[in-house]
């Protein structure tokens, strides 16, 4: 699927957030929340640094966006995430009424937007959000692969 220039720009910003996580030895996932073509929330994984299992990129970006607009409802916002959101993050996205999710790489172990589950679109909850996958998939996947190679001690880094 082809996306417009803005969507690639916003996902590039999410990738920059993921890079911050990588530098801090966190799983490199980044997210941005967008309202009226402007980023109003940013986040990257901080689980290890904060010693908080809920400190996922999406959770941090959502909280920042809610603080920015001073409302928990983000119904006119989109979220861009480098990796498919997990069950917890998808729940937060649905609870905050985010309109659309754009993500890069699928997560076949924890994904809740098409891989294992599709909570965002299944219609069993009181809110649905549209899901678009594959935007800058290769860049998101390569960053994750490099991180886990580094964690395993494999000296062969991706080029």
Main sheet, how many strands, which sense, barrel? 5 strands, mixed
Helix fraction bin = 25-40%
Mean pLDDT: 94
The proportion of strand residues reads 15-25%
Radius of gyration: 15 Å
Distance between the termini: 26 Å
What do these coordinates show?
This protein has 159 residues and is α/β, with parallel strands linked by helices. It is built from five helices and five strands; from the N terminus they run αββααβαββα. It has a five-stranded mixed beta sheet. α1 runs parallel beside α5. The chain is globular and about 45 Å long. 39% of the residues are buried.
What is the fold's blueprint, element by element?
Layout: H1 5-23, E1 30-35, E2 38-44, H2 47-50, H3 57-69, E3 77-83, H4 87-95, E4 100-105, E5 130-133, H5 137-152
Parallel strand pairs: 3-4, 4-5
Antiparallel strand pairs: 1-2, 1-3
């Amino acid at each position: 699927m082809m996306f417009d220039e803005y969507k690639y720009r916003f996902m590039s910003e999410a990738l920059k957030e993921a890079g911050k996580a990588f530098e801090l030895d966190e799983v490199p996932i980044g997210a941005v929340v967008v309202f009226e073509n402007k980023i109003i929330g940013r986040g990257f994984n901080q689980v290890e640094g904060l010693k908080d299992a809920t400190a996922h990129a999406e959770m941090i970006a959502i909280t920042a966006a809610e603080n920015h607009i001073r409302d928990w409802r983000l119904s006119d916002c989109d979220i861009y995430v480098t990796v498919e959101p997990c069950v917890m993050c998808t729940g937060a996205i649905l609870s905050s009424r985010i309109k659309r999710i754009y993500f890069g790489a699928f997560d076949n172990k924890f994904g809740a937007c098409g891989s294992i589950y599709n909570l965002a679109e299944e219609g069993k909850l009181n809110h649905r959000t549209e899901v678009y996958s594959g935007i800058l998939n290769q860049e998101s996947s390569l960053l994750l692969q490099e991180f886990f190679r580094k964690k395993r001690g494999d000296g062969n880094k991706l080029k």
